[in-house]
Amino acid sequence: MGKVFICDHPLIQHKLTYIRDENTTTKDFRELVDEVATLMAYEITREIPLETIQVKTPVTTTDGKIISGRMLGLIPILRAGLGMVDGILKLLPAAKVGHVGLYRDPETLQPVEYYVKLPTDVLERELIVIDPMLATGGSAIAAIDVLKKRQCTQIKLMCLIAAPEGIKAMQEAHPDIDIYVAAIDDHLDDHGYIVPGLGDAGDRLFGTK
Ligand code: URA
Description:
alpha/beta
């Protein structure tokens, strides 16, 4: 079963409180999401492998550690996932970015792909799917389906806030996926909003409401 990591560093909790606040302006919301994404990138990379190289300091030669292993790929789910990309790239500037766009078919209620553009070397990369709000889990599950259909295997999920319902659905659909969240909230309301949540992440990021 995939693990759930709660990234609850005090700085993340502090910023998340202002992200939730309905009085936070679009500009501040965007900046705070960006900052939390950077802090979460620090947590999500805690286990990445290192290798030893020799480095010559001005004084002597010594061993030092550098990052080894797979390169990273960020896969934001359109559109709210875009809000976390730059913050992660601040720590991981060499990561490539793929995009997955999904809409819900009004009749079947199933997610349908409308845009998928992935790095050409996606199979060699460890992928971080970015979906700020894990509500029912439908979009994130479908995005991971998209990646697995293309034979991607090394995938993690990064969210700002998750509902218990979304975590359960993800663990049932994709038991191999580790989930990184800043907070797990109480429940989903009848409209599929996370409670207490932060409202519609896309609208708040892009000022469309
Ligand atoms: N998507 C959002 O942006 N907010 C929610 O609360 C649920 C899904």
